[in-house]
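The step that takes the researchers longest sounds almost clerical: writing a folded protein down as plain text. The outcome of that step, for a single protein, is printed below.
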Amino acid sequence: MGRPSKPTNVLLMEGKSHKTKAELEVRRDAESSLVTGTHMAMWPEVRENKRAATEFRRVCTLLKAIGKDDALNESVVNRYALLRAECVEFEEKRETFYKGISQMEKEYREQVPEVDEETGRPVFALTASQYYKLLHNMQSNVINLDKQIMSKRTMMLAIEKENIMTIASAMRSIPKTPQKEAEDDMAAYLKKMK
């Protein structure tokens, strides 16, 4: 597959394209036809989710700063915002299970047994087998939540890589060499005469 083509503004800035002016003009027209000129809009389901709405606005602001706030990016940014909100929700659930496990361990260790009147033996509210079964179930839930979080993070990273949301994707559009200052014809002629 190879590296994606550079946008015409980058080619012009670099000043070293093998394309003719006519080719660059056609390419610039084609690139501008890919932009709607309409700003991104928040989906209703994003608007209803406070976290997703906050993330959408944050990403929109960043994309607007670099001139990428276009309706063509709308679905990607909305989906990204929803994934981010879901990820945070799963992280909170995981934290709740961690706290529940800690609380259950504490209560199990500190439980005071009642004495059975008939046998005189101690009776615990939670037996060892019940405790370990609950502990196993809660730990399984934590592991499942971690899998969900990793799945969401993987999807988010894929979106970030493809949509100028990572340093690597942004770097693809930066010229590799500094732009040379254009000399006027007279300065070039005098330089040759020396």
Observations:
- The CA atoms of residues 159 and 165 lie 8 Å apart.
